Amino acid sequence: MAKKSTADAGESITIKKYANRRLYNTSSSSYITLDDLAKMVRENVDFQVVDAKSGDDITHQILTQIIMDEEASGEQMLPVSFLRQLIGMYGNSMQSLMPSYLEASMTNFRENQSKIREAFEKGLSAGPLAAIHETNMAMVRAAAETFIPGQKKSAAAKRNAESQPPAPHDEIAAMREQMAAMQKKLDELSK
């Protein structure tokens, strides 16, 4: 297969694809398969696939074919909804932005992959997802306290408050206090 010394030297390995659909690794002087190319990708070996007759770069088509083979033979990674949205982008005015967006998203995911793995290994209670969850719950509680007056009152206090209707002025003052408390909580959460 690929010689590590060639890949380590920063050179791209040239793979020639012949009309009979065979792939020839010019670095190792051997015929290889799509599975070999998939392994090279996983090992971060840089290569370029060219059509042996025309010399055209067909790396994109070969990588797409590897993805199709992986999706057909193994566990599917690309959800149908994603594929539909991706297909819907072809011909769309945003099509030109998609390659750089997808590349940046994948790079970001790969860079944060170890952090995500750690979070799941430690459990959600100690990870970044727990912090996001806590922030969301605090915001929901703050909103509930604001829009549902008396949320924190005890049951006895609620019954007492229900038996005596508040004066309109007191109700507005209570709402202002609750709004101020919610604003304070939101400010603390955004820090």
From TrEMBL:
<dbReference type="InterPro" id="IPR010134">
    <property type="entry name" value="PHA_reg_PhaR"/>
</dbReference>
<dbReference type="InterPro" id="IPR007897">
    <property type="entry name" value="PHB_accumulat"/>
</dbReference>
<feature type="domain" description="PHB accumulation regulatory">
    <location>
        <begin position="78"/>
        <end position="117"/>
    </location>
</feature>
<dbReference type="Pfam" id="PF05233">
    <property type="entry name" value="PHB_acc"/>
</dbReference>
<dbReference type="InterPro" id="IPR012909">
    <property type="entry name" value="PHA_DNA-bd_N"/>
</dbReference>
<feature type="region of interest" description="Disordered">
    <location>
        <begin position="151"/>
        <end position="191"/>
    </location>
</feature>
<feature type="domain" description="PHA accumulation regulator DNA-binding N-terminal">
    <location>
        <begin position="14"/>
        <end position="73"/>
    </location>
</feature>
<protein>
    <submittedName>
        <fullName>Polyhydroxyalkanoate synthesis repressor PhaR</fullName>
    </submittedName>
</protein>
<dbReference type="Pfam" id="PF07879">
    <property type="entry name" value="PHB_acc_N"/>
</dbReference>
